[in-house]
Design brief:
The protein is of the alpha+beta class. It contains 9 helices and 11 strands. The strands form 3 sheets. A 6-stranded mixed β-sheet has the order 1-5-6-4-3-2. The protein has a 3-stranded antiparallel β-sheet with strand order 7-10-11. Strands 8-9 form a two-stranded antiparallel sheet. Keywords: ATP-binding, Kinase, Nucleotide-binding, Serine/threonine-protein kinase, Transferase.
């Protein structure tokens, strides 16, 4: 993990100017930073720098640095390094992470003039579910505690990544293996804090530290699924009921799932596509169940979302080398197929292009 000097980042952010502010949350602010002369090596030339806005935010930021340093996997925003405090100051460190230029899922769903199609929505859900599953499977286990659309960022490669680990907690699963109880806080991590999260996404069962467990993330992810399918805000004061859970779950239970679908885009075309979206809604309803025991583990959620994507015949987005490489790959493959087709008779092959992504950036 690279350590940047305060002076280096101060220049890269234009002295933390307002024009480079790309997000602001309750604990801190995030700035776009362009490193002078390029980054060199493995460090990208453009990064995002997060700094705390108050003393409590400093503790949250240190926690986020520690969790991200241990949670390196494709579904989590990449930690690039840290910023040392300014010379002669008593300030805390800052966080440097990859810059996600395609913004947040929240903006894609609620501010974009072109809402994403159904395959893209299920694909994003699968990316995030896989990330949460990996966090829950780690040792010590990581409970994110703030899974929401504003904390799901979209990369240039098309992948969705989970961000903002300021509320995350590491817990040990060994102490409670086989007893069915909630995991205990890991001795090497921060103690189990008081319940926290975002209204609308927060698990109503999570009312005290002793109830901290992966099922709280499952509930929050279920809310994200409902948000993805419906395009509705999680808390809408102009609607009745205002909660997306209280509105959607009864409709799904009554067999009127079509009433939940986002009406800004065409309904899923074909029986397979309809069943795929219904399958996603069924998983969402289980995730937000009032009974914790009825909520599925994230491994099961991942399996269901993968099954929905495959059963509908929706191609998954290519992530290997970005859009340019994907275009070159398709061109080479097309030429190869043309060459083969001229030599032997084959059936026609149709390729579909990747989905477009939003360009507005938002961090929380």
């Amino acid at each position: 993990m690279r350590e940047f000097s305060y002076e280096e980042v101060e220049v890269a952010t234009g002295d933390f100017s307002a024009k480079n502010l790309v997000g602001k949350g309750s604990h801190g602010s995030v700035y776009k930073a362009r490193l002078k002369g390029g980054a060199g090596g493995r460090v990208p030339a453009v990064v995002a720098v997060k700094r705390a806005s108050h003393s409590q935010g400093e503790a949250k930021l240190e926690n986020e640095i520690a969790v991200l340093a241990a949670a390196r996997q494709p579904g989590v925003v990449n930690l690039v390094g840290v910023v040392a405090p300014a010379v002669g100051s008593k300030g805390q460190r800052m966080l440097v992470m990859e810059y996600m230029e395609n913004g947040s899922l929240h903006d894609l769903l609620h501010r974009s003039s072109k809402p994403p199609p159904w395959p893209r929505r299920v694909e994003i859900a699968l990316h995030v579910a896989s990330a949460v599953q990996a966090l829950h499977a780690a040792e010590p286990r990581v409970i994110h505690r703030d899974v929401k659309s504003a904390n799901i960022l979209l990369g240039r490669d098309g992948r969705a990544r989970l961000a903002d680990f300021s509320l995350a907690v590491k817990v040990s699963t060994a102490a409670n293996a086989g007893d069915g109880g909630a995991p205990s806080p890991d001795d090497s991590a921060v103690p189990a804090p008081a319940p926290a999260g975002t209204i609308g996404y927060l698990d109503p069962y999570y009312t005290e530290p002793g109830r901290l467990g992966p099922e709280s993330d499952v509930f929050s992810f279920g809310v994200v699924l409902l948000e993805l399918v419906s395009g509705r805000k999680v808390m809408d004061v102009n609607a009745s009921p205002s909660s997306i859970v209280a509105w959607a779950v009864p409709l799904v239970a009554a067999g009127t799932a079509r009433a939940v679908l986002d009406r800004r885009i065409a309904a899923p075309q074909g029986a397979d596509a309809e069943r795929a979206v219904s399958r996603v809604l069924a998983v969402a309803a289980r995730c937000v169940s009032e009974s914790v025991d009825r909520r599925p583990a994230m491994a099961e959620v991942v399996a269901e979302l993968h099954g929905a994507l495959e059963s509908a015949g929706w191609q998954r987005h290519r992530h290997a080398h970005g859009r340019l490489a994907g275009m070159l790959y398709r061109r080479v493959l097309s030429c190869w197929r043309l060459h083969v087709r001229r030599r032997v008779q084959t059936s026609k092959i149709v390729c579909s292009e990747g989905n477009s992504v939003l360009t507005q950036v938002a961090y929380d």
